[in-house]
Amino acid sequence: MSKILYFAYGSNMSTLRLRARIPSSRVISPATLHGHSLVFHKESLDGSSKCHIEYTHTPDDVVHGVVYRISQSEKPWLDEIEGLGKGYEEKRVTLIMPAGEPVIAYTYYATHINTSLKPYHWYKEHVIRGALEHGLPGHYVDEIKSVISVADPDPNNHIRELSIYP
Fold first, then answer.
1. Can you name the residues that pair with 37 across neighbouring β-strands?
2. Apex CA 32: angle with CA 142 and CA 70, to 5°?
3. Contact 149, 121 (CB under 8 A)
4. Which of 15, 83, 84, 135 has the fewest CB within 10 Å, making it most exposed?
5. Range 3-162 classified under CATH 3.10.490.10
6. Is 31 helix (H, G, I), strand (E, B) or coil?
7. Which helix (H) or strand (E) holds 3?
8. CA neighbours closer than 13 Å in the CB half-sphere of residue 143
């Protein structure tokens, strides 16, 4: 069975969230993507914003995330979940692993940007949980925590989304 590497930097950093969506996903390692910054500017169909890796042209800007190995046969599911062609596109990125070695993986970047939207509390919670789970730097987690989020108009979404956590 063919496998590919996927770089998660938003809600899919949470292993429980990604495994519920893509059963074959297995954590490889945290990693960093240079020349980008994490922003919550992707316009979502639900009226909120989601994460986006914004290319900054500045090598010192870094996005921390998690490299997963997934089955090639499940890649179309991930494309559908991520909205490939409907607000996200994919690209191959060169990441730096903890020991300094580079690795190439697929990731998604936003094409529908709206800087006036805010993420829902439940979405931000997935991102924070994933960042903490994988030991991302404290200052980076604090930056995510500082992002202003809003309540989902449908409180059942909040309950459903976070029900995967014990």
1. 54
2. 110
3. yes
4. 135
5. yes
6. strand
7. strand 3-8
8. 14
Every domain of the chain and the residues it spans: 3-162
Do the Cβ atoms of 26 and 3 come closer than 8 Å? no
Report the pLDDT value the prediction gives residue 93, as an integer from 0 to 100: 98
pLDDT at 144: 98
The reported pLDDT for the residue numbered 159 is 97
| Residue 127: C-alpha distances to residues 14, 65, 137, 151 (Å) | 7, 10, 14, 16
Contact 137, 64 (CB under 8 A): yes
For residue 154, what are its two tokens?
């449908």
Q: How far is CA 138 from the centre of its chain?
A: 17
pTM score above 0.70: yes
Per the prediction, the chain carries an average pLDDT of 97
Amino acid present at 52: H
